[in-house]
Design brief:
Elements (H helix, E strand, L loop, with lengths): L5 E5 L3 H13 L3 E5 L2 H10 L4 E5 L7 H9 L4 H4 L3 E5 L7 H7 L3 E4 L4 H12 L3
Parallel strand pairs: 1-2, 1-3, 3-4, 4-5
């Protein structure tokens, strides 16, 4: 069996984080977590991450700023990590905003867990 993929979940809500983690662990993903933008940057610099679920409203550094920082990273294995935005405030952003920041995909809250799994697989299947 192939080495399991590592997903970083950037989410400040423990309930959403734990539910998302359980769902993805059932799909054999290895899960890392970050409760704020500072932790996101530390995690991507110290671990091999295959995709990021990025809540846009996390403290310290929001998801859009984290995404821009990751995209500007000098190491391609970091700057090219697929990033999936997760937000309950999608009305504040357009797909153009997401694309400009470097976000690969988007999931609305409340999360549809089937769509979550499908979206994560879409961005990790050929890695």
């Amino acid at each position: 069996m192939a080495e399991s993929m590592t997903i970083l979940i950037a989410e400040d809500s423990s309930v959403i984080l734990n539910l998302t983690k359980k769902i993805l662990e059932l799909q054999n993903y290895k899960i890392l977590t970050a409760k704020n933008g500072g932790e996101v940057i530390k995690q991507v610099e110290s671990n091999k991450i295959d995709a990021i679920l990025m809540d846009l409203n996390i403290p310290v550094k929001n998801g859009m700023d984290c995404t821009k920082e990751i995209r500007a990273h000098e190491k391609p294995e970091i700057s090219q990590i697929p990033i999936i935005a997760v937000t309950g405030n999608a009305n504040n952003y357009s797909m153009e905003d997401f694309k400009a920041a470097g976000i690969n995909d988007y999931l609305p809250k409340p999360l549809d867990f089937d769509l979550l799994v499908q979206t994560v697989k879409k961005h990790t299947i050929n890695k």
